[in-house]
Predict the structure.
Amino acid sequence: MNALVLRFRRYWFSDVSDGWHYAVFRVLWSQFHFTFAIYMFYWNYKEMQLPPLQYPGVLSVFSQLSVEAVLGMAVAHFVLAICILAGWHTRFMQCAAFVSAVPLLFHSVSLYQNHYVFYLLVTLYATLMPAERFYSVDASRMKQKLSAAAYRAWKSAPVPVYPQRLIMLQLSFLYFFAGLNKLDPVWFARWSATPELASLATDPVVAAFWMQLVHTGVAWIPIAAVALGMLSLSVGIMYANKYPLIALVAIGMHLSFQFMLPIMEFTSMCMSILFLSLFPLRNRVTEELVAVMRR
Amino acid sequence: MKFAASLFICVVILLNTSLGLRGLWKQDTDFGSMHPYSDPAVKCAIYAYEERGGVRYELPLPHRLYRNLPGPHFVSRFYLEQTPYFEDGLTAMLRRVHPQAQVRLDCTPLYGLLPS
């Protein structure tokens, strides 16, 4: 039992070297703050004349907000995104972005988007990250404020690993249940034997190719490969820092989805998290690559 | 601090597990679960009409459909439980031009149907 607790502690509460990868993740993730703000502003403006469609239960309180207030919050969210990207009062702005995202997402059911629930959760975990030490206004201000030695110490102080683990765990859960879902016999039979997937495809070439697979009775092969791939990745991303090939396979899978289905910015969301999964560095190739990037 | 963080981690794990299992159990048609790894899909037909003197007259759909629904027949990736909300939205939009307009959205979840 004690050994289990120790392993839990070591896995979740060990420190990793400076927060460079958190800063890069902050920059990568800030694009979703922008797109979320634009999505919310665009649709709320477009549906201004329509009443908000209430969520059930406690979430219905967010529908009491007026459209003008929601539009204002979307603008504020956009401004917060700029601050996060620039790294100005980073931690506070990250918390504020999460707080403003909640009413924006739950204002109206008609604006529900499951990938933005994922965005909301990752944004929550990102508030725990010290992501201000690199590429930020905060870092420049600290440089002016502190002596050279104190600044170096501030910048290179170890950071906790658990915010990153939480984000990876969320992606791991996503892979696991999405993979398991696809192995459900009903789901599997439906998508591998009928042309519905082709009608969702945005690219006419992909849709035609998919129809061909359905007609020849082999559409189950890519479906099974994706399901098994996702199940493997749900465990595999925890080892991507040792074996970066796992992250590369995941990126390849997401890029192939990108060419097939209208999945908004889910691909780039996952790619940002897969970047995070390469840390703490335990592979010679990624160590060299990161050293080149940081030079 | 470590205790609070451990508690938070345990809550995240339990919540994700229960939502994921619930999504599997409900075959991803339950909007209430709202978990981020669901994969909902429905096949729908939109029917817009107006009743005058007890007779139903079919109405043309607005040029730009509500929420970018692609046309009167479509497959989309939303939850079955969202159907009434889309009906309300479409009705409100159509009533700008036809004050008595009614919209019916007939949807079936793709999961529940095996190919014949």
Summary: Strands of chain A lie at 15-16, 159-160. The two ends of chain A are 44 Å apart (CA to CA). Chain A has two domains: 18-159, 161-282. Residues 161-282 of chain A form one domain.
